[in-house]
Amino acid sequence: MNLNFRFAVISDLHIALPQSIWDHPSRFHLVEISIPALELALDRLEQLDLDFLLLPGDLTQHGEPANHTWLANRLAKLPFPAYAIPGNHDFPTLLPDEKSIEFKDFPHYYRQFGYTNPDQLYYTCELLPGVQLIGLNSNQFDESGQQIGRLDEPQLAWLEQILTETKNKLVMVMIHHNVIEHLPGQSNHPLGQRYMLENAPALLKLLKAAGVNLIFTGHLHVQDIACQDGIYDITTGSLVSYPHPYRILNLQTDEEGNRSLQIESHRIESLPDWEKLPQISRKWMGDRSHPFMIKLLTSPPLNLPMEEANKFAPSLRDFWADIAGGDAQFDFPDFPPKVRRYFQSFSATNSEGKLVFIDNHTTLVI
């Protein structure tokens, strides 16, 4: 089937109406700009001939009913379909509290955006003839009520059945948590594993067996494209944190039936009252980076003493902003060899150690 279509991805919107904004001294993202940034991005996308829009979770600041309602109403005005899934911020507690909705209420807000069954937190739908979307829910709660990134067994069984019914289609999967590592050792590192799907191998096994090779994720707030066993995990940075990106993608099929996915990344550069948005948000992130960098330096595999960590941390104030921007290249020649090599490993390199800049603009053969 000759498939040719165009779509966009906007992730981690963290929508916050002005009266709902609450601050946290360590947050890296600027929820203050969530609505004007989304409006500008949608205004641009509405000028294009898009077939659909994907929203891979963290739609709201903290699951507030008013923020979910505002977003659903805004998406309903789009000239193209939009499809959403929940992130960890969209129902952060198992039961509703004074701020947030209950997890089972999420589908009711997004019945026009994939959730035709309001009693189920995951879904599948035909985007176009021959193209199927599977929207998964990776937000679970353990016995103590703590939120974890995982697919429960009923959802995995449902997914296995759906994949048998869509063998002759191009299947795209959308899930909030990362399925493939986007950072060195992400699955095992105490700072990185919370962004990973705990049972990612089980999901990858099902997808590989079904010939599915496109996954769209969010959560990590970085621009990155990772590949494992021929499966791509395309994660998109947050619209409310540096560099305020969104993606436009074109899938094309040539005369011989070969498919390619062209990916373009765009950024919000300026907003009313935020004329130098990237500079402001980059500084905001750098100003709040010290505790994070200390944890990274004192955690495995470096395990540096606090005295050394405090010495190196100032040189790393922009490290996470550079990671978030994608296609980063790192070298700290004044660091000791072990520390230098560790941070070099975060550069945009392939398995052979060569620099490959694919995180923002690339064409994937699928």
From TrEMBL:
Taxonomy, superkingdom: Bacteria
Keywords: Hydrolase, Iron, Metal-binding
Organism of origin: Limnofasciculus baicalensis BBK-W-15
All residue ranges annotated as the Calcineurin-like phosphoesterase domain in the record: 5-222
GO molecular function: hydrolase activity; metal ion binding
Identification of the protein by name: Metallophosphoesterase
Keyword Hydrolase recorded: yes
PANTHER family: CYCLIC NUCLEOTIDE PHOSPHODIESTERASE CBUA0032-RELATED, PHOSPHOHYDROLASE
Pfam families: Metallophos
Keyword Iron: yes
Family affiliation: Belongs to the cyclic nucleotide phosphodiesterase class-III family.
